[in-house]
Design brief:
CATH superfamily of the largest domain: MetI-like
Helix content: over 70%
Strand content: under 5%
Number of strands: 2
Low-confidence stretches: 1-5
Number of helices: 22
CATH architecture of the largest domain: Orthogonal Bundle
Structural class: mainly alpha
């Protein structure tokens, strides 16, 4: 390769990175500009009618779920890390399985279980009398329960990792100074876990404010559901843009708060005197109580919904209701997810490479711009992409291309979070040695860099594929006419309370998610 070609390669790579970052950031910029340019009358009408209710509902739901996940996540992590009881190793990874259950699947299962005439109400009426009723799933309590059961593994995973890395010497010093066990937990252990807990809670709250599937099936009014109603019911894109902007501000607040807490919660432990906490053996009664607690949470969050889905699926197959169209839905989901995951990896590679190997301010800024998809909940991103394509590329409107673009914009940040650390862990001396032996920059990337980081890139592809398989709001809004995916079929059938017809696609989504989640967990467990 000539000297001119050697200089042209980094420049072309930087140009590609800027282009990708600009395209990813464009939907967010367009939503902001559209909302700001909306007439004041629209803002006034929404402030007087919709926004106060939506602000209250969204904030209280996020707060309630955060409290619930904090209690469940920390208590479960404490039990599996600090205590020794039969079956501990099983519960250690089984408590993560609820992550394979999309919120809209769990919402429709609990709509049946807690609904009028459902099995929970029948059991409760035998205990409390025939006139008694359980709380409605289409309420704040129902939405909080569903979202808590679905998201507590996010806090559990981070709390578990933090407890495993916690130096027990701090607790021993506090005990010598006279603190009780309860005092040690609240004044020593939990403050040292604060960085992990804040990170987990920020993920949970960001997930709650951007969720559409559960709140739409439970008819609970939040910003995401309101944006969808404005787009599909009123066809008012200006009002949808205003609500979207407020939702984006919500997401930004959670992200910035998490960054601020992380900077203020840095703790360093000396490796020379580090000691892990020994697990305390439990007696027969204690082991039974722990098993009942873990089994109840696991059963409500994963086992009972999965068994119910399996029962409905087998009943649907036995009745012959499952026709050839079902395999078309499977193909649509797999094709879209595979293409979107591959496109995201191809587009994210130059961004991650430039930020790690040529960490100039512009390259880092491009990487940060690509994370704009994090603050674009599904309906918001779908609205922005819909308006952009209808204005600048109307010939692509109503095609699967617009869906793939929406998937890439929304889920590329998840892939970058895996690709970037993989490149950071690769020492640059290997690439420098290849360059010193005469290999070109492109040849070095192809023969040295990519083979060594392929594990991280494969994990990123699996993660994006898994997220795309479960994606609902953008698919509902942007899909071509008659083009359904597994997630769309679950939502359509569950909305009409055809629980058995919604079961096969829901069960298949959970089944396909299991190997991907176990693969990622196996990598994390081996690393730990």
């Amino acid at each position: 390769m000539t000297a001119a070609a050697r200089q042209a390669f980094p420049a072309s790579l930087s140009l590609l990175g800027i282009t990708v970052a600009g395209l990813i950031f464009l939907p967010l910029a367009y939503i902001i500009s559209l909302a700001v340019s909306t007439q004041p009358a629209v803002w006034t009408r929404l402030w007087q009618t919709r926004i106060p209710e939506l602000l209250w509902n969204t904030a209280t739901l996020a707060g309630g779920v955060a409290i619930g996940t904090l209690i469940l996540g920390v208590s479960l992590a404490w039990l599996v890390v600090r205590l020794e009881f039969p079956g501990r190793r099983f519960w250690e990874w089984a408590l993560v399985l609820p992550l394979t259950m999309p919120t809209y699947v769990l919402a429709y299962v609990y709509s049946y279980a807690l609904g009028i005439g459902g099995p929970v109400e029948h059991i409760w009426q035998r205990v409390a009398g025939p006139q008694s009723h359980v709380f409605s799933p289409q309420s704040y309590a129902g939405a909080t329960l569903v979202m808590t059961l679905d998201t507590f593994p996010l806090v559990y995973l981070l709390a578990r990792a933090a407890l495993l890395n916690l130096n027990v010497s701090f607790e021993e010093v506090a005990r010598v100074c006279g603190l009780t066990r309860l005092g040690i937990i609240f004044r020593v252990t939990l403050p040292l876990l604060r960085p992990a807990l804040v990170a987990g809670l920020s993920l949970v709250m960001l997930y709650v404010v951007s969720d559409f599937g559960a709140v739409s099936l439970l008819r609970y009014q939040t910003f995401t559901y309101a944006v969808y109603q404005q787009m599909t019911g009123r066809y008012d894109h200006s009002a949808a843009a205003v609500l979207s902007l407020i939702l984006v501000v919500f997401a930004l607040i959670f992200l910035l708060a998490e960054r601020w807490f992380r900077r203020r919660s840095r703790f360093y432990q000396t490796t020379g005197r580090y000691r892990a906490a020994p697990r305390k053996p439990c007696g027969l009664l204690g082991s039974a109580a722990i098993t009942v607690y873990l089994g109840t949470i696991f059963g409500c969050a994963f086992l009972l919904p999965a068994l119910l889905l399996l029962k409905w699926t087998l009943a649907t197959i036995a009745q012959g209701t499952l026709d050839s169209r079902f395999w078309g839905f499977v193909w649509n989901s797999a094709m879209l997810s595979g293409v979107a995951a591959t496109a995201a990896i191809l587009l994210g590679t130059p961004l991650a490479y430039l930020a790690t190997r040529r960490s100039a301010r512009l390259n880092v800024l491009c990487l940060q711009a690509a994370y704009a998809g994090y603050v674009l909940p599904g309906p918001v991103g779908a609205l922005a992409i819909l308006l952009l394509f209808s204005q600048f590329a109307p010939f692509l409107y109503g095609t699967v291309v617009i869906l793939i673009v929406a998937y890439v914009v929304h889920f590329l940040p998840a892939g970058l979070q895996t690709m970037e650390p993989a490149l950071h862990q690769l020492t640059p001396t290997l690439e420098e040695a290849a360059r010193s032996l005469g290999a070109s920059a492109m040849e070095t990337i192809r023969r040295i860099t990519l083979p060594l980081v392929q594990g991280g890139f494969v994990a990123a592809w699996v993660l994006i594929f898994l997220q795309c398989m479960k994606e609902l709001p953008a698919t509902l809004l942007l899909r071509p006419v008659g083009f359904d995916t597994l997630a769309v079929r679950v939502w359509l059938e569950a909305s009409e309370e055809y629980f058995q017809l919604a079961a096969p696609p829901a069960f298949l989504i959970v089944l396909l998610s299991l190997p991907a989640l176990l693969l990622l967990l196996a990598r994390d467990w081996r690393s730990a």
